[in-house]
């Protein structure tokens, strides 16, 4: 589903596409914030001898959350890494089959990751793991990551349905 198709879509697919796009943009803003914090820390360290406390912790958590926020968008618009060298001579039908298979694998991995990350979050909360300097609980970063994985599952389902429709048309 291209960005143009998302804008004109209505119903569940259109709403999901806009939500996924907005979530990816929020991830981009978070990444921009992480870069800003790092710049402030570098400038503070060089000019005032005092870095921003906990900048490494914020970078670690922020980048993890941002990367997960991009996954649903990449799935939705077909921007995942692919090995075109193997399919360069394949027919359109074979490529459609591989695309459908990729969407199925993405859906399976999204479901698997939601399941395991949810229990990982519960473990982090139960054992009260926090960052060293700022004492931010680790489990808090899992919440937007789980939302990203849920959106990845939705995106994978949408692409799976789209790919099945393309494959059935020949």
TrEMBL record:
Annotated signal sequence range: none
Key words of the record: Cell inner membrane, Cell membrane, Membrane, Transmembrane, Transmembrane helix, Transport
Keyword NAD attributed: no
Top-level taxon of the source organism: Bacteria
Annotated compartments: Cell inner membrane; Cell membrane
All copies of domain Tripartite ATP-independent periplasmic transporters DctQ component, residue ranges: 37-164
One GO CC term on file: plasma membrane
Membrane-protein topology: Multi-pass membrane protein
InterPro entries: DctQ
Presence of keyword Transport: yes
One of the record's GO molecular function terms: transmembrane transporter activity
Spans through the membrane: 20-43, 63-83, 95-119, 139-161
Function: Part of the tripartite ATP-independent periplasmic (TRAP) transport system.
Family, as annotated: Belongs to the TRAP transporter small permease family.
Subunit record text: The complex comprises the extracytoplasmic solute receptor protein and the two transmembrane proteins.
Designated name of the protein: TRAP transporter small permease protein
Species annotation: Roseibium album
